[in-house]
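Fold Annotation — chain and its backbone
Encoding — discrete vocabulary of local shapes
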Amino acid sequence: MWLPLYTVCLRRQTSCRKSFAAALINLSRQRANANVSNFSHSAGLSAPTCKALQYRKHGDPCKVVQLEDVDLAPVGDKDVLVKMLAAPINPSDINMIQGTYAILPDLPAVGGNEGVAQVVEVGSQVKSLKTGDWVIPRDAGLGTWRTEAVLAESDVIAVPNDIPLLSAATLGVNPCTAFRLLADFENLKPGDSVIQNAANSGVGQAVIQIAAARGIKTINVVRDRPQFTQLSDSLTAIGAAYVIREEALRQPTIKELFKSCPKPKLALNGVGGKSALEILRHLQVGGSMVTYGGMAKQPVTVPVSALIFKDVKVRGFWVTQWKRDHSHDGKIFRSMLEELCSLIQQGKLTAPASAEVGLQDYHKALDCAMQPFISAKQVLIM
């Protein structure tokens, strides 16, 4: 059952346990592999607390999110105490705070659905984790914008602690989405092509790199902007075969591209509106367009001719639902993470361009995350 982390934190409040205090002292002596700050707790014998970015009503994130002290529950037999290391700000996090996302936690709630943490203490019946492990959430809704948390063992999954901190912090949403988009809808082989809009997004950058590692060409569509050449060069550097402006999709010169590149089997839509229509038009007969986002907040329109004469398939994908549909078989999720982490270790999959921001500077991070034409993902460093 999906529960906001704030609810978990408040389920049991007692005085600070000796093991909890010992863990905090030990961690203060041994910093994590990443360059992160140590624990910070209120003094005295009261229940331990953590710092958390919490909101008590839906609205503009810059106005409703506040940095507050939140009580931590004691560590149960099947729980782990973790120190959050880093957590990104994703569009879904913003939408959740605004109250427009498909799933909404009970209020008050701690923001953040993704991130990486280090295990500080484990309950007596915890089998799969040990102190020092790095972990990421299995599902959305844990509330990762916080310094510490007490979580059920089943809420998290271990990842290698020898991968870059930012790669681990941004692993659970965008790379997983990109992986499934490339794996689940068309039988793609080396030499095939994929077209996508929002190519500079976190998902888009992951699609480029995973596809390149498999010998699949990507046609990457981005909105025109003053720094287009710089953006194009950065996407090419990570494996993009082609980077084009949205306007180019409507011009006759696009035919020249397809003289050296096969028509795409798969179109990935993270925008909606006219942008989705334009990438759909270039699909080969029988191809698929998969929508995973709608940044334009406009509906997807499909021409009748595309359905009748090209037999295109129009699908949707939500990684949160995929994780829940496959929660009964942890091997599938584990296998995907292992493949993604292997690509990271080989240098074939890097974290998206990111700006590291201290938790206390959250207002700046939230504001930047909501600006147009911002390619750098805001990542909160705890």
